[in-house]
Input
Amino acid sequence: MADEDHDERRRSPRAQVDLQVGLRFESVQQFLSAYAGDISETGMFVRVDNPQHEVGQLVTLRFEAGKERIVQGTARIARVIETGIGLEFVELDETGRKLVEMIVRIKLAAG
Output
């Protein structure tokens, strides 16, 4: 599938970010600290060199969304490519969801 086709299927606009994200892969007891390249209200892309993870795998994620504001929840790997993994948020608490929405709005408004 071409990247343009994938972009057209996205449900939410993506904002470019450089957020450090902690990921815990429960199926392999692995912890990974990496950087997100973009985020939307429904998920994020995390930059990882040659990821060895599988589509459908659940991960626990955690990242800072400003001063003393932490977003944590569960995501499902929706896409794996050479440069990283696409995550779809499965469970975020209400505060976390609002913080993600705020990040996206601010980043998109800033261009």
Observations:
- Helices lie at 3-9, 94-110.
- The chain has one domain: 15-110.
- The first strand starts at residue 15 and ends at 25.
